[in-house]
Each structure stands twice: as C-alpha cells, then as structure tokens.
Amino acid sequence: MKCLIISDSHGSEKELEEVIARHQEEVDAVIHCGDSELQQSSPLLQNTYVVEGNCDIPGEFPEDRAEDINGVRVYVTHGHLYNVKMTHVPLSYRAEEKAARLACFGHSHIAAAFEENGVIFVNPGSLLLPRIRPEQTYAMAAFDKNGGAEIQFFDRSSGEEINELRKTFAAY
What we know:
Protein name: Phosphoesterase
Organism: Alteribacillus bidgolensis
Oligomer: single chain
Enzyme class: hydrolase
Pfam families: Metallophos_2
GO molecular function, one term: hydrolase activity
Mean pLDDT: 96
Distance between the termini: 15 Å
CATH architecture: 4-Layer Sandwich
CATH superfamily: Metallo-dependent phosphatases
C-alpha cells in the first residue's frame, strides 16, 4: 500500500493540484489531513480522504476517519482536537482505539514520522506554511506485504525527497 499524505494547504489550490498530479498514478490513496480551506465539492479533493481542520468550514468534512486501504488500517485527523502541538498522547489513544497501523495528522505544520505502540504517526508538514524546516512538505507512506513501512518527505516545489526526514519501520 502506498499513499500520498498532505496537510495544511490553506487554500493553495495550484500547489495542491501540482502535488496530487505528480503522484496520483503511483499511489493507492490520497489523504488530506485538514486545513485545505476548500469546499467538499472541490474537484481537487475528489477521490481523496479528507478531514476537517480548525481553519475549514465546520461540518464540511468529518473530524476524523478510519479507512482500510489495501490491507492497512489508516486513521486520519487534523490534530487540533487532540492537542498535537503539546503532546501526542491523546492522538495515540485514539489511533489505538481505531486499530490503526498508520495515523496521519497535521495542524503543527512540522514534518515528522515516528512509531509508538505499533502505530506509525505521520505529519506531512504544510504545503504552504512550514514550521521548523524551510521546505513546504508532503509525505508518502509505503507499506510492504509484511507490514513494514517507509515514510518519505518531499519538497513541494521541486518534488525532491528530503532524505534526512526518511524513516523506515519494521513490521509489527
């Protein structure tokens, strides 16, 4: 299973369209972790698993969702309801409740990947307003048939991988 993970595009339609077009043929799913600031009817969000962020129109998207994508249970939320800028503990509990192997979130605009209690957490950063690092980022998560995973992060403008952010996780 391979998925494209995007968050915090904040109305940047051109940039969002470029990233999706760049990878849509190689992924099984496109995930947007909120703060798209687009309407549900936007053509850019068709065939995309989207959740509501704190800057989105209330009620336009679900607050969170759990999906089975080619054998991998994926939990998606923006993160603001779980206080992810301060701690990952509430998000970790929720991902475990949803029996997720992959938990995708945004809100902090900080690109990161880590594993806790068998759940791989990915924050793709922001397509528009990055924090900590200068690059506007997004992520790709690829799972092998044994459950191992590789998370890669990419510079939005160039499409090139940011090698120092790459993480590999063994099967759980």
